[in-house]
């Protein structure tokens, strides 16, 4: 069940980034990702989805460079014209869009409750992120996006 959820999550992430932020991503292996992340800073956003039989914790780690480009694209301004608060608001909005899209795909009955996106860490270094099989890694021209999907 969790693997199907992760597959749907990958589709939704790609769709949201392309259609709303004009960002194109490619999946990369955890090994390749781990080699390239030294010294990269990330913003972490978490959202929890709770259903009658399952709870999902989604953690998104946005490279700072990717986050800034996403905010600029979404707001229709140059990177130099955005501030950190705008970047964080855009990241929470993106996570909300993805979680809502996932619920729409996986829960036609509407029994899953969508939590509120929460900034759990700002500018965490990649060394503090555990790279393992539970982490999906994506690369774009603007930086990495890492996504962890944990369920019970």
Largest sheet: 7 strands, antiparallel
Which descriptor suits the 3D outline?
globular
Contiguous helical run count = 4
Total beta strands: 7
- What is the percentage of strand-forming residues? 25-35%
Secondary structural class: alpha+beta
Mean pLDDT, nearest integer?
89
* CATH class category label: Alpha Beta
Say what the CATH topology is: Chemotaxis protein chec
- Strand-and-helix sequence, N→C? HEHEEHHEEEE
CATH superfamily: CheC-like
**Count of domain modules:** 1
The portion of residues assigned to helices is 40-55%
Alpha carbon gap, first and last residue: 10 Å
Query: Low-confidence segments, ≥5 residues, pLDDT <50?
Result: none
The CATH level-2 architecture is identified as: 3-Layer(aba) Sandwich
> For the CA atoms, what is the radius of gyration?
15 Å
Write the layout of secondary structure elements.
Elements: H1 2-21, E1 26-28, H2 30-36, E2 41-50, E3 55-63, H3 64-75, H4 84-106, E4 113-114, E5 118-125, E6 135-140, E7 143-151
Antiparallel strand pairs: 1-6, 2-3, 2-4, 2-5, 3-7, 6-7
Helix pairs in contact: 1-4, 3-4
Outline the structure in words.
This protein is an alpha+beta fold and 152 residues long. The protein has a single domain (2-151), classed as 3-Layer(aba) Sandwich (Chemotaxis protein chec), CATH 3.40.1550.10. It is built from 4 helices and 7 strands, in the order H-E-H-E-E-H-H-E-E-E-E. Strands 1, 2, 3, 4, 5, 6 and 7 form a 7-stranded antiparallel sheet that branches. Helix 1 crosses helix 4 and helix 3 (64-75) packs across helix 4. The chain starts with a helix and ends with a strand.
